[in-house]
Amino acid sequence: MALRKQTPSPAQPQAAARAPVISKNAWAVVIALLVFTLAAFQLVRTRHAAVQIGYALSQATREHDQLLEDQRKLRLEVATLKNPVRLRSLAQSLGLVEPDPARIVRLGRATGRLALDGARGH
User: Fold this and answer.
1) d(CA 122, CA 111)
2) Other C-beta atoms within 10 Å of 83: how many?
3) CA 102, 108, 110: angle at the middle one, nearest 5?
4) Tens-place pLDDT, residues 38-55
5) How many helices (H) and strands (E) does the chain have?
6) Angle CA(25)–CA(27)–CA(30) in degrees, nearest 5?
7) What is the pLDDT of residue 122?
């Protein structure tokens, strides 16, 4: 029995050189998976952004509440410092006395002059 080399038929070399063929259904599945993956990625990004915005809003709310509390304290401090009884006591402790009513110059709202200007005769 002699071994002889098989000569390939003309159809065989073409089949061996050709890449595997992917059917149209397989391409549709690949594209559907790609679209699904991209949609899932976008959903995760959107949810992450929403959580980050929620954290930022929570921080801003805490800061706003703190600023409101600081404002309340400052308004109370201003009211305390402007209290006429306190100011009178402070002035007396510094040796200040109330001016003679004849020396007080009252200005109208329309004039922008200082009380000292009226006392000098300008």
Assistant:
1) 13
2) 12
3) 155
4) 999 999 999 999 999 999
5) 4, 0
6) 115
7) 45
Q: What are 69's two structure tokens?
A: 């509390």
Phi-psi sector, 71: left (phi>0), alpha (psi -120 to 50), beta: alpha
- What is this structure's pTM? 0.50
109 vs 28 pLDDT, higher one: 28
Nearest C-alpha neighbor of 104 from the set 116, 91, 90, 88 = 116
- The structure tokens listed for 25 are 């259904």
CA distances from 11 to 8, 20, 47, 95 (A): 8, 16, 56, 122
What tokens appear for 89 in the block?
A: 């006591």
pLDDT of 97 above 70: yes
Q: CA 51, CA 122: separation in Å to the nearest integer?
A: 68
Sequence-separated (6 or more) residues with CB below 8 Å from residue 118: 105, 107
And the tokens for 95? 């040796």
d(CA 102, CA 119): 11
The pLDDT of 54-82, averaged and rounded, is 98
Q: What is the mean pLDDT of residues 50-76?
A: 98
